[in-house]
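Chapter review. Work through the record for Site-specific recombinase XerD before attempting the end-of-chapter questions.
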Amino acid sequence: MGYFFDTLQTAYDTAYSEGLKKKYTDPKIYHGGENFDLSKRWYVYFSYEHPTEKDVNGEPKMTRQTPVYAKINQRFHTKRERLAQLNILKDILSEMLKDGHSPYEGEMNMKTEEYTAESALDFAHSLKIKTLNPTSIMDYESRFKRFKKYLDSRKLLKRSILSIDKKVVNAYLNSILKTSSARNRNNTRTVLSAHFTVLEENDIIPKNFIQSIKPLKTNPKRNKTYTLKMVDELYEFLSEKDPQLLLFIKLVSYNFLRPIEVCRIKVGDLNLEQNLLYVKAKNKVVKTKIIPNIILEELEKLDLSNAQDYLITPEGVGPWTTSEVNKRDYFSKRFKKIKDAYNVHLEKTGETYRLGKDHTVYSFRHTFITKLYREMRIECSRTETHDRLMLITGHSSLQALVSYLRDIDAELPEDYSTYLK
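Structure tokens for Site-specific recombinase XerD:
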């Protein structure tokens, strides 16, 4: 028996020693979470010592390897089938690792492909921009390029896409927060998450971890509502100083359009015989709105002979070859100049109020929706008013409309002094 136990002790000591020096983690199965979600991609995963990279202690860095799918998700669609096949795959992988095979020596062929961060992100970007409108593309391009520049500055761009983990992305988002705002940080998070979702859907990464990074609370920008007195006096000032800008503002005011939607309108989008306007909106391809008589007469005075002309340009109806964002920004800056001039006019005439930075072109939309809501509420119940208003404003749901009305304080309570006595 002594020989037997000596042999056993030697074998154990060898196994224990090798276990301490193991260059890999035991393969494990990801099965869609606690509920075994079959809509997710199941796979086998493991980590292996990187041949050159070191950790803070100077030891070889244990690096997560490309997940192994082996087309199991495509071939098997029940929990039992997938678990059985993934266990087989896990056992094969374990034996290969025990036999000394290394993912860095090209000895393991599990039909997976290693992407660099640059190639993977470029691939995701090329697909994602195909789904975006021109306005969003510019924003995505800018944020995408800045993220790649950040990775390159830290020598991560040529590394495996799997090395771009939550810690890396969080560090980048924190750097944005320190130099700009929570809103900018959140918008960047949204753009990066969209790219990593594409990578997950194409089996290049196991999971879009950016979804687990929470957006930060922000203080929403408030476009301050004008008083009706302000509107009347400002309209009079604009009719003399800048009639073209006034027409732009009236389309925002009376048709309840966003400024960028006004910039999209072409002559061919108008049907004056039926008082209809077709406009590309934020949340759907095209929406149809009526043209109220209050602005129809002004449109009928314009030269609408060329269907391809834009209704609003710096000089009137005509061609305008620049992006929608540039068009919107142009009129925002033009309004800023006229607002400054109007404030000088107010000072000269002895008025005590001034237009501030929160008084924007968009504020006219809020102002006239508020006016319309309050006028309707005189005759209609709240429910009836909501139903009628939805047809006019174009909100996609009652919940969206109610939330919007709450945000702009469209409905205020009656005087409650008697309850305080």
